[in-house]
Amino acid sequence: MLPSARHDTGRTPEASLEEAVGLSRAISLEVAEARCVRVAQPRPATLIGEGALEELSTVVAATEAGLVVVDATLSPVQQRNLERRWKVKVIDRTGLILEIFGERARTREGQLQVELAHLSYQRSRLVRSWTHLERQRGGAGFLGGPGETQIELDRRQIDDRIIQIKRQLDDVRRTRSLHRDARARVPYPVVALVGYTNAGKSTLFNRLTRATVLAKDMLFATLDPTMRAIEAGQGRKIILSDTVGFISDLPTHLVAAFRATLEEVQAADVILHVRDIAHPDTESQREDVEGVLRDLDIDIDADGRVIEVLNKADLLPEHERETLAAAGRRRGHDTAVISALTGEGCDALLALVATRINADRETLTVKLDIADGRTMAWLHSHGEVLEARDDGAHVFVRVRLHPNDAARLHRQLGTTRH
Q1: Which site in 32, 175, 331, 411 is 20 to 30 Å from 291, CA atoms measured?
Q2: Which ranges carry the Hflx-type G domain (predicted)?
Q3: What is the model's pTM?
């Protein structure tokens, strides 16, 4: 049962409730009742008023619910009071998302990040979560004294574990940084997929890479980031990165905990903002994603790396599809209208990515010994060979290269960059 008490999200209460139901079903919860509760003035003790409390008490008893999910942020006091009143476990929106992330994390890194988020959230709720808080643990021997309350000891244990996890995640960040440095030396540009959860990122990832990443019509179907190398066209290979989906009111614990993963987005050469253009709340979802990107110091309007990918176009009438790309261009974005499910527009999207990546490439003429087939093969694999001619002893190649590749070639040939 999910009384939705969120507001100021730009969505209708019914849309917010539908999303909360989807989140609950994402971890196989059976939803017995779902309803919106109007909150004129949030109550410090219970969030909702006495009349709604009484009405919901009846519903909880009638449905024999084992859990109530409140689609809002509850204070520890509100959570405890609601549990006492309804005599059932109560979790809020943050707790629900944490449960989903805990179930979906598969890699060691993902599990560490989820545990950090859980502990940070739990630490602020010790007053509600522990049943032995009233106990006083006194000292003995030369360490004797007034003692500490159990809550202080529990908090200390959590703090110690948080410190351990942060150290391990620092190692993860260093490892990721080394991987990025290695990719820069290759170098393959990184193209990161971002978007609201269930916008179709994983379906698009599978379409472009022919991979088998889990892709379901489900919120947070995938959690751990996945990377694959693909051919983007114009003689350019890229690394495509599928990242965790965003959602409205994404808990700050999660944003902080998943910093190591989100750094992949910050370091990407191109960012594909995948939108479910057929969703009735697509504009609100866009604003939510842009808000998280701003938290990562990525201004979607000013950052030239962002391409807007309008997905699920197959669900729209033909005349609507024709106006979508033009609308995106009016906002100043490169825009691709696609269907990841059917493949419509995906070739055009890859061509757009290749054009964006190649925009900063240098055009230079290289003089090679006619027998230097190795360097010629390297030029074909790393750049776009525009022209090649020979005089019998040497080959003169006009080639377009990424600046990093151009620098590498000059070092390899012992020539000077002009």
Answers
A1: 175
A2: 189-361
A3: 0.73
